[in-house]
Structures are given as C-alpha cells and as structure tokens.
Specification:
Order of helices and strands of chain A: HHEHEHEHEHEHEEHEHHEHEH
Number of domains of chain A: 1
Strand content of chain A: 15-25%
Helix content of chain A: 25-40%
Distance between the termini of chain A: 10 Å
Largest sheet of chain A: 8 strands, parallel
Radius of gyration of chain A: 18 Å
CATH architecture of chain A: 3-Layer(aba) Sandwich
Largest interface: A-B, 32 and 35 residues
Number of helices of chain A: 12
Oligomer: homohexamer
Shape of chain A: globular
Number of strands of chain A: 10
C-alpha cells in the first residue's frame, strides 16, 4: 500500500473502489452488515499475496475478533463484532465535526473476523497473531473490534514485533494484572502487562486514561507506574479537563508509532451498559469523541475498540457507541494514511 | 380564543375548566392516559365551530400525529404519541425550575390524534394540514407529538400559510435533503427543504442546533447554508456554551412568529435510545431543558416533539424525555399565550 | 439451472461449491451473517447473465426483502432479513427429523436483499418483481424472508406470471382485504386478493391455515370463500388435527406448481412475539414444523417467511423461529429440486 | 338496561351508539387507548342516575382497577389496566372462532378506572364496592381488569350482596389463604376465603381450575375442599382433557348466577411472563380460549382478568393475552346479555 | 448420611433443621437468595469432616457451578446459578401435583458454588471433581445447577468413579461430539463422549430424550448409537407420547444407579429463551414436569440442570423454568433418599 | 463498638475477619451475592447480645429493607436490596479516587434484610424501628438499601431518638408532602415531614439537593422552607457548581450527627431508569460521586440508598449505580468510624 511508485491517480482509483454503500440509494437496514457498509475483502486478497512489502490492496482493514474466552466477569463480547457491524451501518461518509471524509483519504475494507477458537485462548492468540502479521507486513493499518481486551495482546505481538510501540489506552481499568485465579496469566485483565514484558510496548510512551472505580489491590496500578506508564484516573481527567488530557497524551506518546486501544467501559454505563465490567462515573460519548479528535496527527499504526457485549446491552446503544467511536478512530487512521502519502 | 372582548374573569373560568387530573387524588398510573392528564376535547369542539376567528375554546392544543411512513431508517415513531401520553402523566402543574404554572396561564386540552393513513404519506399530509388549519384560524397554538419528522412539513403548511415563520430546530440531523432513493421527496429527511421551498419558513430566520454525526453528502448542509439558514453543529454548541447558543437562536428568529421543532434524537442515545436514527455525542436532557428555558418570551406559534420510537426504547426513558421536553415547551407556549392577553 | 444436459457429476461439483461455513471450524457467532452461513452471491452472477433459460448458477436463492412500508399496525419487519440471517447461523447441515441434507441436494446461496425504497410501495413492488423475474427465468427457486406480507404480491407477479399458482398460506390473518383507510389497496392486508384478481393464484388451489382472532368485518373472509379459497381456522385445525390438515392442504393444491407463504404470526405470541399484529392462540413451533414436514413432495416453486419484526421481539426468539421455519422450508425446496433432477 | 318496556329498536339504536372505533378507518395505534377501542363513558352517566333499577345506559361496562397494594410477591399489576387497554386495541368486532359479534349483542363502554388509593387496601376495598354497587343496581355487567387478585373480593361484595354467587376461578393458585405475615387478612392470597366467609360465594357452586406448583402448607387447599369447593389441579386438567373440565365446571355452577375470575398466571409463563407469581406448567392461550368458549350460556353476572403486571412482561405478550382473554369473556357476557333480552 | 445406626427420630430432627424459610413469614423477595430458600452450609461442614463414610450432615446438597468457559455458541451460563437461586425462592414446601414434601423426606442445604476458574477449563474440571468426591463419599446426593453442559463430565468423574452409571439425558443436543475447532476435546459439546470413554457411564444404560434441530455431521449421533446409547429424537417423543417415553427411559436405565441431566434447551425457546444454543420445537415445561414425575422411584445418585444463560433470557422465565425443573428433580431425589431409609 | 478499652490490635483483628471475598480468587459472579461480597452476619450476633452499649461485633452494618408498600407511582423497589447486592459484587477493596480502603478502616458485614410485611406499612415501620434500635445502641452505623423512601422515617425513629439529626438529602423530590389521596400520611412522599414533626431531624440542619421537575402544589416546598430546611434545586446546583453545593451542605449540617439519604432518582433517568418516579434533568453518576467525596469528614451516623426498582431497570444500570453510590457512602462511613477511633 502506498508505495512510493504508485501514482496519485492510481491510488485515487483504488480508493474509489472501496466506498461504503450509500444509504441514499439502498437503505441502511438493508443487506448484510459489514463494517461501515464497506466492501468485504478476503484478507489474503487484501495483502496482495506474492506482492512485496507495503503492497496491500487496501490501506485500512476493519477486522472483528469475536473472542471473549478470557473474560473474568460477565461474558458476551464475542458477539461484539457482529453487533458493531450492524450498528456501524448508521455511519456515513463525511464527519460532521472534523470535515474528514475517510474513504476519500484511504482505501478501507472489512476483512472479516479472525477465525478464533472460543475455548482455547492460547491457540486463539496464535491465530490472531498469524492473521495480523501479513497485514502489518503489507502496510495495512488494522482497526479491530473485539472481543474482550485480551485480544489486544496478540494484535500487539504482530504490530509491535519490529519495535516497541507507544500506547493510548482509554479504559476504566488498567488491565495490568499479573495473574488471576492463582496463576492464569492470559486474561482480559493482563494484556498490557504481558505486552510490556514482551517488549511490544515502551511503557514510558504509554498512557492510560479514565481509570476509575475500585481495585482488588494496588499492585495492578503500582506495577504500571513502576514501569513508567502514565495513569490518568477519571478524577484527574475531570479536574484537568479534556484539552489538557489530550495534550498530555500527545506528549507521552510523542511522534513515534503508537497504538490506540479503546475499551468501551471507558464510557459511563449510561452510554455503554453492554459490557462485562461496567463502572459508574465514566466518559460521555461526547467527551470520548472530543478526546479522540484531539489526537489527530499522531502516528497511529493500529487501533481497537473492545468489550462491547451485546447480550448485556439495552437498545443497542453500546454497539452504537462502539461503532461511532470506531468511525471517529477510522477518521484518525485515514488522515494518517493520507498524510503518509 | 383570547379575543379582546373576553373578560379576564371569563378567561380565568375557562382556564379553570381545563386542568390536569391531580395525582394527589387519583394516582398517575390510573385511567386513560391523555397528554399531561389534561381533558380530552374533540377538535371540532375546540375550534368552536361556527364561531369567528380566534374563537377557540382552548388556547393550546396538544395533538398526536402517529405517522412514521416516511422513515428511512428504523421505524416505530407512529407509536410515539401513545407512549408520550403515558409518560406525560408524570408531569405536574408547577414547573420547579421556572415557577411557571402553565394551566393557570392558558386553557390546554388533548385534542387527540390526527387521523392519518399509515400507508400513504401524501394523503396523510393533506389530512394533517386539514386538521391544523381550523386550529390555526381559531388561534389555538398546537403542540404536536410525532411521528417522524416529515409531519412538521404539513403542520407548517397550516401554520405558515399566512406568512413565513422563523424556526428553531433542535436535532442531530438537518433534514434538508432534496430527495432520497432516487426521487422520493416527501420523507423525514426533507421537511425543512420542502417548507423553505414552499415559502412557509423564512430561511434567514431559521436556526438548526445540535447537528452532528456524519453525512452522506455535503449537499444537505450546503443547501441550507445557501438559503441563509444558520447551522450550529454540536461541536459549536459545546465550544460556545448554551447561553451563547440561546442568544444566537433568539437573534436569528427575532421577534417574529416562530416555530419550534424538537427532534428527540437531538438528545444523546443514553438519554433517548428509542429513536430511529440515533447519533452519539448529543445533548443531555439537562442541557435541553436549559436551552428551552432560555427561549422564554419568543413569539412561538406552534411546536413539536418528534421521532420518539417506543419499540426501540429501553425502560421508557425516551418517551419520558419526550414528555418532559413537551412539558417544558408547553410552559413556553403558555407564557406566550398569557403575555398576548 | 439443472438443464438436462448437465452431468450429475457437474451438478454435484456445483453443489459442493455452495456449502455453509462449518460451525465446527469457525464459530457460529463469527463473521458476517448470511442466510444459513451460505456463500453470498450477486443475483446477476446467480442467474448466469447471458446464459439461456434454466441456467442459474444455483438452484435455490435465499433473498431478503427488508420492506414494511405497508404495515397497518406496528412496523419493524423491514429489519427482519438481517435478524433472520443472524439467527439462521444456528442451523446446520443435516435435518435431525427428516434426515434431509439440503446442501447436498441443491446448490443454495444468499442472494442478498432486494434494493427496496422504504417510502414507496409501488416502486418497491416494481423493484421486487424486476429482481425475481430473472431468477424465475433461470429456474432458481426463491426462498424469501420479509418484510411485511405485502411483498408476497410482487414476488407472485414474477413467479406466477406464466400460469396461476396454488398456495399454501399459513397465517393468523387472511390478508384478503380489498382496501384499507378508504382506498389504499396495496397494503400487507391485501396481497392475496390482489394476486387472485391478477390471475397469479388459482383460488381453488389456495388454502389458508391457522386463521384466528377477530375480524373487522366478514368481507375479508367471505370474498376469499366466494373465490373458492379454502380457509382452515385455528379452531378447525385443532379440532381435526395436523395430519388431516396437511392432507387437506395437499389435496387442495394438488400436483401443480405451488407457492408456500408462512406469516410468522401464524405462531402463537409465546413463540413469536416479534411481529406487528400478534394473535393469541396460535401454532407452536413444533406444530409448524410437523405441518411443514407433512408437505414433502409438493411442487413448490417458491416460498417466503414474513412479518418477523425484530424491534418487537424478545430474546430473539421470533427471528430464531423464522430461521428454523426457513430451514425446514429450505429442506422441502431442496428435496423438490433434487427430485426434478 | 334491558328493561322490558324498551323496544327492540331502541335497544338496537343504543347498541349502535357504542361501537368500537374501526381499525379500517383509524389505525389501531392511533388515539387514546380505551378498552377494545370502545367509547369512554362516565360511570354516573352509565348508570343513568336518577333512573330506576336496570336503567343503565350500557349493558356491559369494562372497568380498570389499578391496585396492587396487597401483592405478596412481585408488584406491578397496578399498571395492568392501562397496558391491557393498549393491547386490546388489536381486538376487532367479530370473533373468528365463535362468530359472536359482541357489540351487536350488547351496548358496551369503557367506564374508566376505579379511583383507588394505592397505599390503603381497606379504603380501596370500600371505593371499589361503592363503584360497583350502582352498576349492579343498574343491571350493568362488569368486566374488570386488575390489579391484583384482592380486587375480586370487593367486587363480589357489590355483586354478591343480594345472594351468593357461583364461581369459575381459573388460576395457578387457590387464593384461599387465611392470613399472611402473621395476621394480614386482606391480601391477594385471600379473596376467595373472605368471599366465602362473607356469604358472597356459595362454595358448593365454586370451582378452581388450573391450580399447580407448590404450596406453603396444605391449609389453603384443605379449607377450600372442606367448604365444598371443587379444585381441579393442572394435573387433573391434563389427565381429563378440556371438554370434561368444562363440563364439570358447568355442572358445579349450574344455572345460577355465576362470577368468572381469570388470573393471568393460570397461563404458563411462556404465554404470560408478566405476572407477580408465575408458575411453570400452565395453560396455553389456546387452551384458555377453548375452555372459555365451552362456558357459553352460563348465567355470568360479572368477570375479571387480574394480575397482569406490565413491568415484568416481555414484548407485551402478557397484556396481549389479557386483552384476548378479556375479549373472549366479553363475547360470553354479550351473548348472555342478548339472551336475557 | 442415613447410616443405619441413626435413629428415625434423630434423622427427623436433622431434617427439621434444614427447612426453607417460609414465604408466609418473610416475603419471597426478601433476603439473600439461596436455592429454594434453604439454609446455606459450608461443604466441609456438610460432609462432616473427620466422620466416616455416609456421614454427611445433609442428605441432598444443592450446588452451583458458575462456569461457561467451554461454550461454543453464546455464553452466559456462568450467571445461571445465581439467577436460578433467585427464581427458586418462588418454590414452596409441598408439591401440588405429586404431594411430595421434599424437606420432610430429606435434609437439604445450599452448599454454595464450586470455586471455578473462569478462564481455565482443565483446572475447573479438577476443582469440580475435588468438590464432589467428598460429597459422594459422605453419601450426599448432589443436585447441581450449571453452568454449561461441560460441567457434567467432572461431576461424573466424582460420582461414577466407583462404577459406571446409567444416564437419563434430556436435551436438544446429544453433546457427544469428539472434538471441536480442530482438537478441543473439553467443550460443552463433548461431556457424554468423554464420560463414556472414561467408563463413568454405561452407554447401554444411557438414554437421550428430546434431541432435535440440525447437526453439523452425523458422527455425533452415530458414535452414540454405536456405543449402545438410546436416542429419542423430539419427533419420536411426539409420535410415541410421554408415557411410552418414560417407560422406555425406565427400561433403559433399569434399577442401577443413575444420573439425571437436564439441559434447559430441551425446552422450547418460548419456555426457555435464555440459553446459548436454543432450538425451536422443544418441550413445554408441562411436558417436562410430566416426564420427570414419571421417573419416580429410580435409583438417582445425582442430577443437574444446566445451560440457563440469564443475559439471554427475557423476563426471567428461563431461570424460573430451571428452578421449577430443579424443584421437581429435588422431589425425585428426596423420595429416593427417604426410600433408602 | 469501638469502646475505648479495646486495643488497636484487637480492633484490627476484628476488622480482618470482615473482609469481602476476593474477586481474584473466586469470580464476582460466583456464590450467593451479599452486599460488597461481605460476610453475612445475624443482627443479633452483630449487636453482641448481652454485651454493653457500643459493643457491636461490627462497626458498619449493611442492611436491606425490601419494602415498597407506600409507593404512589410505579412499584418495584421491594426488589431493590437483592439487585443492589448482586450489582455490588463488582465493587472492590480500594477506592481508586480517594484511596480509601474501607474494610481496613471498619469492620463491615451484611446484616440481611429487615423482616418487613409487604402489605402493612405501619407494622413494617415498627419492625424497622425495632431492627435498628439495637444496632444504634451497639454503635453500629447502618447503611441501608431500600425499598421506597418511606423506610427512612422508621430508620430515623431509631437513629434520631436520642437527639435530632442533621440531614443531607439528595433527591429529585422533597418528599415533604403532608398526606396523599385524602389522608394517607405514611407514604414515600412524606418521610421527611414526619421526621421533622417527630423531632427526629433538626430542620435547620437539613438540606435537600437536586430537587427538580414539577410539583402538584407548592405546599410541599413551602412547608419545608418554613421549617428552615434548605432546598437546592437542580437549577441552583447547575448554576453554582458542585464545590459550592458541597460547601453549603457542610455548612448546613455542621459538625453535629448527620444522616445521609440518597434517592436514586436524584440521578438522571439515563443513569438510573429503574426507579418509580424518574425525572429528566438529573445528576450524572460522576457528579454524584464528586458530591459524595466532598462530604468526607462529616459526622455521619447512618445513610441509605433508596428507590432502586429493578423491574423498571434496563441492563441493570440502576442497581449498578445504587451499588456504586453505596460503596462511596461506605467509604465515608468507614473513614468516620476510623476517625472516631
């Protein structure tokens, strides 16, 4: 994708091919629901098998990982990708707030779901990593919809293999536990500890925003701080205001390659009831959108929206929020792709 | 109604007749649910058939239009009037915030539903117009509960026939499309374009507040701006603050006759999940109430609350919000009626 | 399709191509939801454009018609196809009760949704007819998921154009009204009257099963009886028993080409709450399955399952019932296709 | 009502005045929801104040009693009348199964709700009795929608004051407890014991049908049997079949004046989840309808449908069942009224 | 428990200690919800640590296993035990249909939940087995509430260790798969294959009742039949009737020790929507109760009710059905305990 | 409790005994749900019967009062304690925002539910008072979960008997009515009027925060003001900001003993839909938490969270909010207990 030799015209033509179905022609409730009503593309075709590095047919791939096998509280996030796809049919081509038209900036497609094994986390981790490595090599920026938060770890194994990444992590929980239930180290409460341990993340370039509620023990937080990670609790967010929070996030991750992970439970349960471990006192969707819009221009190499659990939702508003957040992140990614050339 | 020759005493007596049933005597969950537990009045009786202009028996008429036949996304708003009636039984006689006691200021009644045809939009438009014309002639100020947003257009055909009106339009969407699905011009996405084209609205006295999300194409917005309409996106609302927004709305519509249209999807889906085309990042009910209270004193000639879709709701909070918004608007209308004398 | 010159081997190969994704490999909640997890095929490709009559690439096409614009009571059936697709992911390859393996008997694919216009019934009828005519010509047997019951009429315009069809119509309502709301003749209460009037159905080969509840007027029933249609009310069904009912149905339609229309409100609201006009006292799903299984061997040229309205559903059981009924019908159609050779 | 001197023509004229609004003209979801879309009539007007005995303006009165203050398990039945009114808008003029057209046989009206006191059972009992006495004197047959089952006791105080009545009581529970919580004697578990003690019911003409589940103690049952009441458990109902059950019910109550009380929890929770004390293993709606239809011709002097608790319902099917049961009972009452002449 | 030397008086005293809280004294919605409102007992105390074999303090232990980590479709059954406890507060002391008073026949207690590891099936299996072995040794008959169906396998490892058991398995699915997703052998689709392979069940004394729907492949069924297991599909159940089905079940298991496993998806989705893999066309609760009551007198050594998934439920009716089924099974177990002396 | 003679070591030991079950060992969805997963203690044991004043075994008691018999609008709060217990299993040991570890500061236990009589408010009031008096004498600080707001009055009869208390009352409604329905003086709309009249509260040390919506009549407010109570409407709260509101609350109650009562309808319906009388325009949970945290250091002698009505909730977010609010209040109480020494 975006190799230097491709002419601007060819690129535009390619992008024109990957446009969402228009809601003005076919209704939004019509047809199979792909992410953002985008064309569905086989991952193998997307990476342009046999072609060289950076030769992806599309520039951004939207991917579902329907796995919740490491959820320690209420399950259901395995049903997230399908529900977010459905809700995402309400998004349109042009962002009202920022003016960004993502599909004019980058060729985007729905690459389907990773073929996970719902009863085997270790095997699933391998499958996820194997799915994302070729995408990373082809230069396709992945926007993932989970699934529980565990899935971020194997995604980072693919994206951060070459060099540690920075992280903007918006969540109610730090997810930096060491182990749960007496030794289980691969759960949705541990991905960022595992990723830091494995050198996939540079902890000094990591920031967690919106942490709140109560903790079982301080270790989860203290370990992260000891690594040099920055934690902004919800209380600090409120005290300092979103502009300052965004500025600090930008300062922490700097100009290097950065991953963005959005746990839907960062939102207040009024805005996102459908998640396994809700915590009152969270973000509104309006604040979340403002925060994301303040992150324009960062070198984002991938992102995810996780922990949407449809069976726990009411009136589909959590999936709707997940889809809206995903669209806003997609605009960030598309701008970045376009900026890269 | 309110003709000059009527004595203040006669007027007070008439108003005393139209009081809501007291929740201190009969419980709020008891009996058939009329709007605000007000008396139900036949429209023909309300207009005082045979009497002269401005001879309405009541001063404000609450009316349902259970039509959603032009909904382009998820339907259900046809069930809105009944659900809002039910939820409105929780409103009482005295507004805590403003001190307004609407039923002391104006004689109000539930005039029932317009007899729509659910499978014929054109015929329904005619029936709506025919229902509202006599009310307008009798000087009865209509407060309508929809139904989808299309219904505002035929209401304006009745109210704006004499002269173009100003408009305060609170909504997530501009609803100024030209046509949908290759030529359908009467949908819930087009009422304000049709009304401007028909000279029912003065576009330079029109303001839209809360527009957000994404667009299929810029035409919807650009056309409105080209007519001279003012659009305040949600982002601008947040940046400038409600007092300034209200001030601008007042400035735009001025002292002339003005219509107020409140699409429930102006609210965030956390506050109003039960609507066909929800958009995250919207108003809280508290903000909506503050905004409405800042509009006291305008020359409002009618208003509506639309797009409450009960089958999509959860726990009835959208109908509850619709009823609360309607009560707040009713206070505005009653103050205006009383001010007119 | 199935032209005589095609060898049995080629046919088997073609069928092998159109198999549902296995739930033993990829989980049922994974990926985009197509009908029965079947491959998605463009209708143009399905009919084998340019090829001669009966040259369809597949033998059975599953199609969604997301239209509910003629619903006279509670809407929502436009969302039926997507919900039934989702629920149908739970069906598997081998029918436990009958031993039928439909995908071994006939090449089946999901042909997507008809591109309807949600606000224009007449135009939608034309689009539906235009979508089905090439399928009929290519010999592809359509299994449709609605949408409201109106959609059966334009489907019959395509399928019954050559000669009148017999009809097995399982429903709580006769849907043989003449007009509603003072002249509206194209509603979900009129399709079978229109189809008989247009000569698409042979009324003496039509049987309605499960009619119950109350009527506005006897005309709806008397007209049908006057045409020679057979009506079995729910009471008669109970009194005579399912074997006798099935035998009568077989006798009425005989060996000629027959259409099967299943309105989900034939089921009791306990089994199918998510429909616009539920009537208590209906079929259980077990009875419905038994009834359908007793129809093996008829010359079915098409079928539909209509009136699944997801916003009115609870726990998704109506969509689940719709999917299960559709699978059972698919088995009937596949056996017929295989029998034809 | 129905005094001998009234000519048949006058009676027909009166009945013609009280017809439900036609769903063919105005949609069923339109307007305020009265029982069966019937005209609403003030009770005082209904009884024809000042006129002599049997001088009621209507022959059957549909009445809501929104009281659940004696519920010992989960509350919510106070919201039953409004929900059943809403659901009853789906009933029409002509009974498909029996051919009965109730509004042609008897003048029927919605008489509104009894003005109960939600926090005072004793006072509420007095208000109920006071509401029903004039109706009884005017010869108006009441069809009541509760409310919890307690309300049957004060209704019987009005209807059975002149002579003890027979009783057909369809329910999962006997409701013949003596007292609960150490002395509370007026609860929804005691009405039939109170009524027998007060001589309002003749226990030897009382039959309970569908009793099931488990009991706290055998006293509840043993007391009833000792009085001579007949109890048919659900197991006996299943073993003997509905025709035999109906025959026994007819034999028990004989030709004397009889009251019919239908507790919605007689239905299985699949058919009526929205009730305070559901018991699995109950009637289907189809069985309930069959049972009721087998009771034609009895001398019914009143009836009720109780314990519909909308907040506990799903998809409104309990209210729908309540409305359907009420319609079927209304047909019984109307036939009886017509037979009386 | 029930060792020969214990006097009848001592036994009665012990049983008197373990009585459910009376709903006539404290309301059913009051207090922490234990199974059947029974006393909660620590498992260590229940087995009478240090005492000899058969020395359990209680005779029947109700136990929750909140594990759904091997669910291959929709999860949520981990929340089953708590929801069934809550619903079980509606059961009372005396069975209306059979006259059995279980708490007079056997000392029963709620032994709490097995301390499972939600993210590790193998470890959980060990914990379950370790929990049940001492109970089995103490002669305490376990009645388990799951959790997904996998949990039956480790329970059988404890109960069937001494000798193979017979099995009555009521379910929509055979759960005799070999492996899923390419090698996962411990899932909720495999427990009975594992148990037969391990010699915990005698396949010739196993019967599966209610199997229906569709299969991925015939192997699941053919393997079971090859072992000598009896499978009664739902179709055979309907064709032959419940009395004959029960007779065959009794014949298959004979007089030897037998385990009873009830998967809630044996019920139709109308009766039990809240389960991960619902199949239409299932049992009613009434049929299930009848079937269970026809199993009185068998040598039941344990039983379970599994796959109640509350997040997928509506109005709690699945948990209610689970509780009612559990109560009926408890009556069977209590009769057996009493018969043993 | 906490008598001077107890050594710090003994106190620490006692506190160590009363720790919540760790979610890192046993999952949060496992086992019977007690408040905050704390040990359950019999009230008699808690007060240390026979011991002297202040000799309670625990320092804070969490208690449920499942009574809603005086609810004048929609009922259901009787089911609140069980739902809040369930939701409270998500709270953990260490407060993220304040750093407070309540279980290290005070010995806390779940004391079960008051044995109320659901059909008798007067008797229930006596039982509540009788339950709380020994706790008060033993120095156990009660944190109560309702139940409707009436229950605060009998609690105050126990806690305020010795001297009038101050009050911080966070609510949408003043609950200072005199009587409802013509004379009923014990309802959930009257507790604070009764408490002031009885001298249990010092009105000049009472403040109500968040009052909003509409009133039946001004008396409710005017009476409170006339007594010297301070009322901060929601509008004033918004205008002045939370820090100023908290400061005023602190000033009003001063350093004297104070009771804290939190009606869940203080929250906006988006955050707490599950309550009987919701009012739009309320607090967010974030604001509520901030407000509570600003009340650290007051001399709180008891508190309650009332009006959580689970049947009216969606996705359990109201119970979740109730549990989160209760945890935050528990932190306040624990700090106070520890400060007292």
């Amino acid at each position: 994708m975006a190799d230097d030799s491709e002419s601007a015209g060819a690129r535009a033509e390619r992008r024109a091919r990957f446009q969402p179905a228009s809601g003005m022609v076919t209704p939004r409730f019509s047809g199979l629901a792909s992410f953002m009503r985008l064309p569905v593309l086989d991952p193998a075709e997307a990476v342009g098998e046999g072609a060289g590095e950076g030769a992806g047919l599309v520039e951004i791939g939207l991917i579902g990982i329907p796995f919740d096998g490491t959820t320690t509280n209420r399950p259901g996030a395995r049903l997230g990708p399908r529900a977010v796809r459905e809700a995402s049919t309400g998004t349109r081509a042009l962002n009202h707030a920022t003016g960004v038209a993502p599909y004019a900036l980058a060729a985007c497609a729905d690459l389907g779901d990773v073929p996970i094994n719902p009863v085997d986390a270790a095997e699933t981790a391998q499958r996820i990593e194997a799915f994302y490595r070729p995408l990373a090599e082809a230069g396709i920026v992945p926007l993932t919809v989970g699934g529980d938060h565990f899935i971020t770890y194997p995604v980072l194994r693919a994206l951060g293999a070459a060099r540690p990444l920075g992280l903007i992590h918006i969540d109610a929980h730090s997810d930096t536990d060491d182990a749960q239930y007496g030794g289980s180290r691969l759960t949705h409460g541990t991905p960022f500890r595992r990723a830091v341990e494995a050198g996939l993340l540079d902890p000094r370039r990591c920031i967690q925003i919106g942490i709140r509620g109560s903790m079982d023990a301080a270790d989860e937080r203290d370990w992260a701080l000891a690594q040099g990670m920055r934690i902004l609790t919800m209380e600090e967010v409120c005290a300092r205001g979103l502009p300052e929070v965004a500025a600090e996030a930008r300062a922490v991750v700097g100009e290097g390659p950065t991953y963005l992970s959005f746990d839907i439970d960062a939102l207040d349960p009024a805005f996102a009831p459908g998640t396994g471990t809700p915590e009152i006192g969270g973000f509104t969707t309006r604040e979340a959108l403002h925060l994301l819009r303040a992150l324009r221009g960062l070198d984002l190499v991938g992102a995810d929206v996780v922990e949407v659990a449809p069976p726990l939702d009411s009136a589909g508003i959590t999936a709707l929020a997940g889809a809206g957040i995903a669209f806003e992140i997609l605009c960030l990614l598309a701008e970045r792709v376009a900026a890269r050339g």
